């Protein structure tokens, strides 16, 4: 009987202990949501408008034959990199050499004629002083001497042209660039003006960027542009060189052309151009995933001890490194939740797992991927329903 009572007593004590633990757990409440945090920082951000366009060369002339002749040799092939003054092709110089020899002979003949007429004129002047010839006779000789001098000048000009044409039998590049297309083959006879090569100027490139017509008054020549190309590391800075309307029956837009130094890119590539419309100094920025969507609007959760406080914010432009401008609702130096923000509510308990490192501060954030605020989508975490308190 005593053993039974002892067993019942032990069972009672165990039950009381379990109830006590349940009560303590109930009083302690649920553990906080694990989150990572970051400190809001200040930097200068850029307000930009982006467009996807194509690259071309600001100069791609067709080099034509300047003299007639048969193509003897080609010195370069399509796709070759070329230098200014480099010989691209040679034409048969025989015809131009013969023309030069003919011009040289004509110059020598006219030099003799002019010298003879000059000596004759001097004799006629002496005879006129002595009264042996009339003034009209002297005038005729003077006119003949002047005519001979003019013919000599014309012959010398023809000789200079013939000598210049001899040099034109060598087709040369007018600048550093690339041979884009070849129109001629050895043995082909070229007339003056026949196309021989198409060249592409490679020191500078031009980005053609289409924009809708509502931006026509905001994008102007002289504005800075950040140009990037898919699969290519780095961003090039250029200037809007020209704005050209492209209105038509099916489209109402305009093209902006940005010229920049070529870092080794090829014409024809697809590029993204970000035109800088303005800069915001001392703007507050946080990671994009810190901003979530709630019924009150876009919010961030500011760390306050072991809880968070919900702040409604107005966002601006997104930066290339994933940071998002906060126009109002947050101050620099405040700590906001990054990972886990989509699962929080106002005054929710949290447990900080680690603090994120913000990207290094710079005078101007890289803007190759800066997008307008209107294009910033809510983070994926914003699609989850907020848990009830």
UniProtKB/TrEMBL annotation:
Subcellular localization is given as: Cell envelope
NCBIfam families listed in its UniProt record: RND_mfp
SUPFAM superfamilies, alphabetically?
Answer: GroES-like, HlyD-like secretion proteins
Stored Pfam families: BSH_RND, RND-MFP_C
Which domain of life does the protein's organism represent?
A: Bacteria
Domain Multidrug resistance protein MdtA-like barrel-sandwich hybrid, which positions?
63-200
Note the coiled coil stretches, chain numbering.
138-165
Q: Which organism is it from?
A: Ferriphaselus amnicola
Residue ranges annotated for the Multidrug resistance protein MdtA-like C-terminal permuted SH3 domain, each copy included: 282-341
Tell me the protein's name.
Multidrug resistance protein MdtA
GO molecular function terms noted in the UniProt entry: efflux transmembrane transporter activity
